[in-house]
Structures are given as structure tokens and as C-alpha cells.
TrEMBL record:
Domain of life: Bacteria
Location of the ApaG domain: 13-137
HAMAP family membership: ApaG
Name under which the protein is recorded: Protein ApaG
Gene name in the database record: apaG
Length: 140
């Protein structure tokens, strides 16, 4: 991932046990078809290890909720086919995607991390919005 994504452009951030998760969601017009209620987002995640041991990202758990309140959970090993090791002070960045049948929604979740000493713990991913220009919700 390009260095251009590192830093202050991530609008969502959370820190758990010295591990900071940053998220940048982006609506992809070119992959979406609003006429048939298909909307697609790319999200870029940066994981920064501020802990004192190397960590391995073992698994992920996502909770995805669309604008109508329909919820789905996704669990799996690693991310994008990897179970990366992240040394103290290092960052790991990846991008993935999320389709919805509604023009907006939100995601939140966690990663199961394992330390060098074998201890496992969950790192929370901040809740982040999936917003498209096709969402006509008016708040009054």
C-alpha cells in the first residue's frame, strides 16, 4: 500500500492494548449499480503495532449493518489471504471490499491477535460508515 495512506487521512481510529487500527472507507461508483441496488465500498485498514512484542493477526470478525438494519457477520482466518506478523513499531496495511444492497451502512469488528509468548487478545476495529451519494436519507 502506498505511503500516501499513512497518517492523518484515516477518519476512523481505535487503539486496543497498544495496537492502533485506522480505517479509510471509500465508495466505488465504478463497481456500484444503484439501478439494481448494488453498492460497493473499498476500505483500507492500517494496523500499527505499538506493543512490545511481535503480533500475528490470526483471524477477523466483521459485523456489517445496512441502512435498513439488516446485519450480517463475517468470520475468517487472517485478512486478504494473509495472517501477517507485525513487529513492534511496524504497520501493516491492506485493502478489501464490502458490497451492500442499500446505499449506506456501517461496519465494525475485531481482529484476534497472538503475541510471541502465545497470549491471544482481540483488537477492536472502530465502527465506520459506508456512505454513498445515492443515500437520500434526510434527518429532521
Amino acid at each position: 500500500m502506498s505511503e500516501a495512506f499513512i497518517g492523518d487521512i484515516f477518519p476512523y481510529e481505535n487503539e486496543t492494548y497498544g495496537v492502533t487500527i485506522r480505517v479509510l472507507p471509500e465508495y466505488l461508483e465504478e463497481r456500484s449499480e444503484p439501478d439494481v441496488r448494488q453498492y460497493f465500498w473499498r476500505y483500507t485498514i492500517e494496523i500499527e503495532n505499538g506493543a512490545d512484542q511481535t503480533l500475528q493477526l490470526c483471524s477477523r470478525h466483521w459485523v456489517i449493518t445496512d441502512a435498513r438494519g439488516r446485519r450480517q457477520e463475517v468470520r475468517g482466518d487472517g485478512v486478504v489471504g494473509e495472517q501477517p506478523f507485525i513487529a513492534p513499531g511496524e504497520r501493516y496495511t491492506y485493502a478489501s471490499g464490502c458490497p451492500l444492497n442499500e446505499p449506506s451502512g456501517m461496519m465494525t469488528g475485531s481482529y484476534l491477535m497472538r503475541r510471541d509468548d502465545g497470549e491471544e487478545f482481540n483488537v477492536l476495529v472502530p465502527a465506520f460508515s459506508l456512505d454513498s451519494p445515492h443515500d437520500r436519507t434526510v434527518l429532521n
